[in-house]
Amino acid sequence: METSKITTAIIGCGNLGKALALGFLDGGIPADNIHVTTRGATGLDAIASRGISIGTDNVASIADAQLVIVAVKPYNMDAVLKELAPHLDPDRHVLVSVVTGITLAHISSFLKPEVSVFRAMPNTAADVKESLTCIAQGHTRSLHTDLVHAAFKLVGPVIPIAEELMEAATVMGACGIAYVMRFIRAMVQGGIQIGFDAKTAGLIVQQTVKGAAELLITNESHPESEIDKVTTPKGCTIAGLNEMEHNGFSSALIKGIVASHEKIVTR
Question: Which CA distances in Å does 110 have to 87, 88, 164?
């Protein structure tokens, strides 16, 4: 699919909507083909300066769009669906929700039955085309599946999943950005304590995290096999790892992931 011809409207331009807009632009969708709507225009200078259209009229924004991405807060979802429903053409529009916790069945209950509906969970790394997007779909046409996958592949890899895993995907892929950032911040703080200035510590940690991820991706290896390569008997690495584990490092991370998941599914 020729992605330069994709037209998209992003309803809601918070951090995720903004990241998608900039990622799509850098991925090859022309600025003229991207329209975003927001209730307030503050904090959108990066988008406006790149030529992306910003408005407040949701219905007007979808007039020339194929892909309609809804990126509002969950409590605003029903109102937006009611507003858009009469104007969604099943032959032209494809609706993609990136809203946490709203099911395909709930979304479809507001729309004509012929409208293709997807749920997608990218993350804010879409801004630099390094998102991982999990996508679930209901009954839809293959050309619409191709369109949605082609668009999100512009901002990183795409994984099709069953809808029942969307909440788990949200925790791992979207909340996961924050978990990794907190880990990075802690490593930087440790680096400062043992002698580095903040900038240098940040550069070391950022490249180390990037390198670690690339090792796993390129070698298709398990984290433990890479750990084994740098843990020598009586060495400093194993001493540090064991101290972290004695203080609950892995347990705390797992508990955090489970807590985030429980927060979504018990809403």
Answer: 12, 11, 20
